[in-house]
């Protein structure tokens, strides 16, 4: 008989204890730390970086990943693109009554394995069980803690005309993979989600001494929304070239059929970098050495300061201004 989560697993009693020990502690380790209500962290002197996020993906399992893998990737990448070294994570699970133990175990193990690969420890967590229909399976909330780098710190105030804009890989893979996995529009594709922790790749770029001035991960809202935010936040004119955008044929075809724009599709394993033009080749060479960065290219440039907006140059040579994503293309994708 398939075991399922019941409301009693959330009441703090014997069943809750067994749930935590058998699924969470067994996956994350840190058995001694589990005896306390707080984790004690060892940090070198200096400033720390802290981020928090929540994950409500549907479906929970999809080609290339699951909600556990995305929870790790999203949290670690938020720290890494800020220039921090990710070290620790906490995870909170909100579990719907009736959720299968087997699926929960898969998600937790996936989260634990990805964290271990990235060199990040899961040091604390929490579980809550809600009535059937109250959580759509599982929601995950995370907090990430990292250490600020002593050298190679990100400083967007140094962005200037002539800098290059680099994307570490193809656009929209995650968004289309999720849409296909839902099976609602009859979209058939072998496309995999790109969700992956990028901290080791980013660390390598910075350790090479590359002059990286700004980084962001283009998740919800996609590349266009992310670049608009950078342009506005740091009073810069950014221009990207439509012909330079790396887009897989499967993504382009799906967007043509469904009327989506790849620039606004979510990505869960990509980083945008604004770098000094003189260091672009060194950055690309480093990115290309990682599977997550093998398709990295320069997609545009910083052309001015003072007015914060993003321009797209079309194949015909004309330019149009891009804005943030308006409305909702794909719900519940990260």
Automatic annotation (TrEMBL):
GO BP annotation list: protein maturation
Residue ranges constituting the PurM-like N-terminal domain according to the UniProt record: 37-147
SUPFAM superfamilies documented for this protein: PurM C-terminal domain-like, PurM N-terminal domain-like
Coiled-coil boundaries: none
Gene3D superfamilies in alphabetical order: PurM-like C-terminal domain, PurM-like, N-terminal domain
InterPro entries attached to this UniProt entry: HypE, PurM-like_C_dom, PurM-like_C_sf, PurM-like_N, PurM-like_N_sf
Record family assignment: Belongs to the HypE family.
NCBIfam families registered for this protein in UniProt: hypE
Name of the protein described by the UniProt record: Hydrogenase expression/formation protein HypE
Originating organism: Sporolactobacillus shoreae
């Amino acid at each position: 008989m398939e075991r399922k989560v019941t409301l009693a697993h959330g009441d703090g009693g014997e069943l809750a204890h067994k749930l935590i020990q058998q699924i969470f502690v067994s996956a994350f380790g840190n058995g001694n730390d589990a005896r306390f209500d707080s984790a004690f962290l060892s940090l070198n002197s200096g400033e720390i970086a802290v981020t928090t996020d929540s994950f409500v993906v549907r479906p929970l399992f999809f080609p290339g990943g699951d909600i556990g893998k995305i929870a790790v990737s999203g949290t670690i990448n938020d720290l890494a693109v800020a220039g921090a070294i990710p070290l620790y994570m906490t995870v909170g699970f909100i579990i719907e009554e009736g959720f299968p133990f087997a699926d929960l175990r898969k998600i937790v193990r996936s989260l634990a394995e990805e964290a271990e690969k990235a060199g990040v420890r899961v040091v604390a967590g929490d579980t809550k069980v809600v009535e059937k229909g109250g959580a759509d399976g599982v929601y995950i909330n995370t907090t990430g803690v990292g250490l600020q780098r002593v050298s190679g710190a990100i400083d967007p105030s140094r962005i200037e005309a002539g800098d290059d804009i680099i994307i570490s890989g193809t656009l929209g893979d995650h968004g289309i993979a999720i849409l296909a996995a839902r099976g609602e529009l009859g979209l058939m594709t072998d496309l995999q989600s790109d969700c992956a922790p990028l901290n080791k790749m980013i660390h390598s770029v910075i350790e090479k001494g590359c002059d990286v001035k700004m980084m962001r991960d283009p998740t919800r809202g996609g590349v266009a929304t992310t670049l608009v935010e950078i342009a506005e936040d740091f009073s810069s004119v950014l221009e990207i070239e439509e012909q330079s955008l790396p887009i897989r044929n499967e993504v382009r075809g799906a967007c043509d059929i469904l009327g989506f724009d790849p620039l606004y599709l979510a990505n869960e394993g990509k980083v945008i970098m604004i770098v000094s033009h003189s260091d672009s080749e060194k950055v690309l060479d480093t990115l290309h050495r990682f599977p997550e960065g093998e398709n990295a290219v320069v997609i545009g440039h910083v052309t001015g300061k003072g007015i914060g907006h993003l321009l797209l140059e079309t194949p015909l040579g004309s330019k149009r201004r891009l804005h943030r994503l308006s409305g909702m293309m794909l719900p519940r994708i990260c």
